[in-house]
Amino acid sequence: MTNTVAPDPSARxxxxxxxxxxxxxLRGSKSEKPVVRFGHANxxxxxxxxxxxxxxxxxxxxxxSSTFSVFAIFDGHNxxxxxxxxxxxxxxxxxxxxxxxxxxxxxxxxxxxxxxxxFVKTDIDFQxxxxxxxxxxxxxxVDGSTVTVGCVGDSRxxxxxxxxxxxxxxxxxxxxxNAEERERVTASGGEVGRLNLCGGQEIGPLRCxxxxxxxxxxxxxxxxxxxxxxxxxVKQVKLSSxxxxxxxxxxxxxxxxSSEAAAKSCRGLPADLAAxxxxxxxxxxxxxxxxTTCLVVDVVPSETVSLPxxxxxxxxxxxxxxxxxxxxxIVGKLVNKLSSVGSVEELFEEGSAMLEERLGxxxxxxxxxxxxxxxxxxxxxxxxxxxxxSPSPFCSPTSKPWEGPYLCEECRRKKEAMxxxxxxxxxxxx
Length: 430
Prior knowledge:
The chain is an alpha+beta fold.
């Protein structure tokens, strides 16, 4: 007869050696979300820069594990009303274009397309107000290690990876620097040139006429012409296991500092101090010539809570205090490994100004009833109120060379105007 001993429910589980825990981390056996830390700083010259910080958005109502973070900068011009409007409505319009009840993976997959719809709807709604101001917009969504950025204008977002490699996640839509955008604007009916003084002397940067805007993409700017489009460049990347730092700033920073200089100026500092130092460096370089706004967002692995985030020259002292001499070698190898494991993985990038290339043919459009949902404004309408719809599952029309989803009449007019297929409703002489 074999005697059995019942397990003691109060017994503690055996201790796991530190080396084993670290090994599990490196093998990816732990799937905790990275920690997001952030800071901001700004100085106003005209008061037209605005920013948005929403660190705990919920993808699935009631599910606290489905959080994601949103950061944005809006640099207004010709007034602040477009920046205010975009700050208040852009995120809601983006999220409303994402189907409900889908998995996180599918949510991330459709997010780039939803950014396009949200930017265009925000522009349409603002232009209904009849105001002439405009704004750049750079919207950053951080969900775990996945970073998705949509931008129009010249408010830039850069990524400084833990190994010191700086990469650009946005495209500057300045006519002076973007030949492809100059060609698109002129092909759509705009004129690109410098400001003419008396006597024919040309000065300043390249501008789009009518209106004289230096940018080729923005939200608002009703007086410029609809070839200045709100369709964003979108890039989605997955960070390595080491995480990384995002620096999102208005052109008051980037006119003074290069991407590399901004990243280098604040390495090793907490996000809140880093943002302040970037602004300080920009002012030291060129003075306060424009509104100057900076957001710094650190996406760091959860184990970094107990690992040093200070510059490498201070890491040995920190390890010694925290882990003792016997663990220094193990932790040192982990830090080196985390700084070199993998690289930033590009998941998506598209900058076309053509809606049929951005919305795709599989955008959901059929509702449960007999109505169809516009892919941009998300309004339900009968098919005869917008583009005709073919019987195909992709909602392609039969009478137009349009391979995208259903668009209502107003959004179809917006699409055609952006492509230069009809005159803009507004025109201002040069």
